[in-house]
Amino acid sequence: MKTNLQRLLSDATTLSSVPYVYMQLDDAIRSSRASAEQFSTIISQDSSLSLRLLKIVNSAFYSFPQKIDTISRAVIVVGTHQLRDLALATSIINSFKNIPVQFISMESFWRHSIGCGVASRIIASYLKEPNVERYFVAGILHDIGRLIIVSKLPESAEEIFSIAAASTTPLYMVEREVLGFDHAKVGSELIQLWKLPKSFEDIIHFHHEPSQAIKHRLETSVIHIANAIVHAMSLGNSCELFVAPISEEAWTTIGLPMDVIPNIIELIDKQFNEIINSFIVHSP
């Protein structure tokens, strides 16, 4: 019997609201009247968020030559849109970190998700995209639907993992067989509930099949490639048992030469451990 997706999401009431700080920051940007000082005041209301953001901007993630010791300075140096997106990423990780789940290590899940975010940001930098933090957030969120499935449908999740292990079939395909939808669709619908940018919705929905992304194919291809690279590097795990090959069409879409992959891997390796510590996710 297939699961009703809308009922699944309505049951996940504690997970169906976007972090309040992000909403305030987004409203401030949309108003176009908010100053850097007002923007920093919103962030500073949450001391733990402020600390995490300062750790991030002072890490190898940015490699600024001088230490940034205040949120107001971070707003000026990093930018309002970029800091808003970083605040979204760290707030979501913080709000999901204690949900009860079986069959999955939350630390390993977030290591994979953050690794994918780091890889996506690095690839976007190679492409000279204007807001690479948006790619970082999309990378972090790409598997968020799997947390909904394992936490709300543990019996179905156990069946899915068992079938995938026995058949060597990718998890997302088994999810479709058992549930009628996959974690990518769940994540996409959650993004819609949160009223986040449409690009996130499409990227998450099609990150396993980037050729199906019509409006945001470049961004989706970046997350698809980043996901495969991070799986191959064994940086955490989102329960996938096998490393899926990179779509040739996705690589053609981003237009980078294959010989940049070693450089991308080197940068991921350089930034990963420090950014994990910045998000207060402990390495095993």
Top-tier CATH class of the largest domain = Mainly Alpha
Number of helices: 16
The ordered string of helix (H) and strand (E) elements is HHHHHHHHHHHHHHHH
Q: What Rg is obtained from the alpha carbons, in whole angstroms?
A: 18 Å
Envelope shape: globular
Largest sheet: none
Mean pLDDT value: 88
The N- to C-terminal Cα distance equals: 38 Å
Q: What would CATH call the homologous superfamily of the largest domain?
A: Hypothetical protein af1432
Number of strand elements = 0
Describe the protein's architecture and organization.
The structure is a single chain. This protein is mainly alpha-helical. It has 2 domains: 18-96, no CATH class; 101-284, Hypothetical protein af1432, CATH 1.10.3210.10. It has 16 helices and no strands. The longest helix is centred in the middle third of the chain and has 21 residues, at 106-126. It is globular, with a radius of gyration of 18 Å. The model has no long low-confidence stretch (mean pLDDT 88).
What attributes does this structure have?
284 residues; mainly alpha; Hypothetical protein af1432; 2 domains; 16 helices; globular
Outline:
The chain has 2 domains: 18-96, no CATH class; 101-284, Orthogonal Bundle (Hypothetical protein af1432), CATH 1.10.3210. Helix content is 66%, strand content 0%.
